[in-house]
Structure formats: C-alpha cells, structure tokens
Amino acid sequence: MVEFDLRRLRFLREFEERGTLGAVAAALGYSPSAVSQQLAVLEKEVGARLFEKAGRGVRLTDAGALLARHARVLLATAEAATADLAALGDEVRGTVRVSGLQSAARRLLVPTAARMMAAHPRVRIEVHELELEQALPELRLGAIDLVISDEYDGHPRPRPEGLRFEIVYEEPLRLVLPASHPLARDGAPVPIAGLRDDVWIASSAGTGQHLMLVGTCRSLGGYEPDLRHFAYDAEVQLELVRSTGAIALLPGLTLPAGDPALAIRDVAEASVGRRLAVLTRDGQQAPALTAFLSTVREQARALSRDV
C-alpha cells in the first residue's frame, strides 16, 4: 500500500491549480528544482507517471490528474482533522490568513483583526491585500483562509465550486465630482445623463468596477463614457477628480468626509450599489476562522449602522 506524503500531495495539488513548476515554487517558497525533485519522489512512491512533456514545460498525465483529485480530498480531510483537534481546546488559537481588496481591507479586515487580537490573543492574524484574481487560487489551495470580495449591481461574481459565498455588507455607489462642477452646486442627486460630455475614471478594463461604470453610463445615460484615467486605488481616483476635473463613481466605504474640493452626490436616475462578500472554503472550519468570520459580520453590521 502506498503511504502518501501530504507535503508532496500539496505540491501536486498546487501544480494542478497553477499549471507550472515555477508558479508552484514561487507560491510555496521553494526553488523549481526542489519542487521537481519532490514530485519525482511522488512518482516513484505511487509507481506511475504523473507528468508528461508539453512544449517547454510539463502537464499532468491521466494518472496525475486522478491523483490530484484524490489529493484535494486528502488535504481537505487533513485540514478538517486539524480543525477538529483545535476545537477540543478551551482557548481559541491558531492562524487565520485573510485577504481583501483595498476598501474591504481598510474598513473590514483591519478593524476585525484588531478586535480579534483583543478577544483572542492566541490567534495569529495575517492580512494580505490582493485582487480577487490573485486571492481565489490561494483560497482554494489553502494559502488563504478567508477572502473579502465585491460585486456590483448587474455584474455578479462567479460562485466557484467548493467555496462558500456570504454577503455581509451592501452600500450605494455615489458620484464624485469636482466641487465646481455645474451639476454639483445645489446638492441634489446628479443624473448620469447629464455627464455625457465629462471625462470619467475607472479601474482597468475587465474589472468589476470598470464594467459597472460602462454599463451604468450605457443604461442610464445612453452613451459610452469618455474613459481616460484608470486606477485600482480609490485614493488615486479621488485625486484625479480633484486635479483634473474627471468624474468617478465609487462605493461609500472609499469616500472621504468633508473634502471641500469634492462634491459627493447620489445618482439621480436609479440606485446603483455594491456588495461585499466573504468567501471561505467548504468543509469544517477551525475555531479561529469561525471566530474571525463572526467578528467580520459584527464589523459589517457596525459599518451599516454608521452610514
């Protein structure tokens, strides 16, 4: 009977997800040669070819793909066993690795980490600011335990198999204009249709915020926005409004209070919103992760009350 080494099975699972030895090595902090050596040992242990040449790299054989599927189950079982053992103790302890986009990290994850440190000092919290495209593979592979994602009205995120998806916070999007803009002077909601001739700011093409902005201008204004500036960072978008007179459409959590250079207005034609969601892996959760998730919910409720 083959005795499987969980560390080598993790290398195989990582390769299935990431696709190259170099990517596995970078993710796990090994050299590519060390990863290759460990996978070669795994092949000898199971007595089957797990990889075959594919161009200048390698890919999984049928046997490799089969073992990778079993590796997912075995690694998940080991994680569940660890969670069950942790639950036997009287004190919550362990490590929780969390990730979120900028506004979620600043307003949800960082306050939650502070509250967890006070309530559960034996829990080690690690916060990573990652875009969702980076964070999801890490979550599926177990390198991250919890991810805060966002989705905009009309542009829902995919619900990947094997992950739990829970909405914890909802907020409106608001127009950000220079204070001198003619439509901003009376404090009333501003029509998207009235901003046809303005320059706009969004995040890069293909992102949820970019798709939302273009879709909003099309559906409510009947035009293609003149998008000239692209930035992920809300602070950069706000500075572009101040300095260039361009227009942004941003979530409430990203907006400053009392900035005389900015006019923050509701959208006149319809309510446009964003939701923040917590993603975790299916299966048994360790007590430390359960406590963190509960604290995230509490922090989200506190944010809702403060709006």
From TrEMBL:
Belongs to the LysR transcriptional regulatory family. Transmembrane segments: none annotated. PROSITE patterns: HTH_LYSR. Residues 4-61 form the HTH lysR-type domain. Pfam families: HTH_1 (PF00126), LysR_substrate (PF03466). The keyword Transcription regulation applies. This is DNA-binding transcriptional regulator, LysR family. It comes from Actinoplanes regularis. SUPFAM superfamilies: Periplasmic binding protein-like II, Winged helix' DNA-binding domain. Keywords: DNA-binding, Transcription, Transcription regulation. One of its GO terms (molecular function) is DNA-binding transcription factor activity. GO terms for cellular component: protein-DNA complex. It comes from the Bacteria.
